[in-house]
Amino acid sequence: MLETESLRKVFKKQVAVDDVNLYLKQGESVGLLGPNGAGKSTFISMIATLTKPSSGMVTWNGQDVIKNPNIIRPTLGVVPQEIALYKELSAYENVKFFGRIYRLKGKELESRVQEVLELVGLKDRQKELVKNYSGGMQRRINIAVALLHDPEIIIMDEPTVGIDPQSRHYILEMVKRLNEEKAMTVLYTSHYMEEVERLCDRIYIMDHGKVIATGTKEELTSILSSEETIQLELDQPSKPFEEALKEQSDVLKVTEWEKGIKLIVAKNTRRLAGIFQLAEHHQVSINSVDIQVPTLEDVFLHLTGRRLRD
Predict the structure, then answer these.
(1) 102-147: per-residue pLDDT in tens?
(2) Does pTM surpass 0.85?
(3) Per residue in 55-78, pLDDT tens?
(4) Which domains does the chain have, with CATH numbers?
């Protein structure tokens, strides 16, 4: 349905997107996961025909999108990361205005306006000015605009950034319904691991402009199938203890978390005894130990050396 091949974008000497290959099948929900600055928004801008690539290909059902952007535009809905609304207008006026840009008219326009307002849960408040909406409500109207022309594919660029938990939950459930009930193809970008896990059939992990891993959740976590995660809650932080753990041959990764230290270690090793010996030597009090199977967060940490939101 949609495919990129060696897609690249360079701004002056800064490589924002570096030879990215990605494909979307009809009806899939695909996640593009990465921290701020990973190149996700630039990548989306290119496949949405808003930014011209420096090199590479974008094809839609086998046709060249770069040479002919109009083959994809009528079938594509884009939810930008920034709110793209007129805040002095009401929600109804905003949606109707953008509907006219989509060349909808008369009864069809009015019908679609009411349908999308109901879909995003704001039909009863459509006459209120957007400037009086909460951030979460504004983001829902942003989504309504992208759905007006009933697109085949919707691209959502971090649609839950900076909003309240209730609006976030509403948006995630709505995206799930669009994909499962309406068979809409979804490309969903986020730096929230749990969102992508919840919504997406396949996941691309992106960092520093490159795709560094791709697959289903199960395929990605299998990267660390021979490892396990040990999470230590400490009474107080200790750099000497942390450094001592890093020197152990079967400890693959050591990172700090809010209450202590997280380790990725080789499975089937008698590691806990050694950890408690090191803690005693460095006069560190361990409050709790939690042994976990690797998560997508652990995979990201393993591949990049940093946490997703760092």
Answers:
(1) 999 999 999 999 999 999 999 999 999 999 999 999 999 999 999 9
(2) no
(3) 999 999 999 999 999 999 999 999
(4) 2-218 (3.40.50.300), 226-293 (3.30.70.100)
DSSP the chain: -EEEEEEEEEETTEEEEEEEEEEE-TT-EEEEE--TTSSHHHHHHHHTTSS--SEEEEEETTEETTT-GGGTGGGEEEE-SS--S-TTSBHHHHHHHHHHHTT--HHHHHHHHHHHHHHTT-GGGTTSBGGGS-HHHHHHHHHHHHHTT--SEEEEESTTTT--HHHHHHHHHHHHHHHHHS--EEEEEES-HHHHHHH-SEEEEEETTEEEEEE-HHHHHGGGTTEEEEEEEESS--HHHHHHHHTSTTEEEEEEETTEEEEEEETT--HHHHHHHHHHHTT--EEEEEEE---HHHHHHHHHSS-TT-
- Can you tell me the mean pLDDT for 254-283? 83
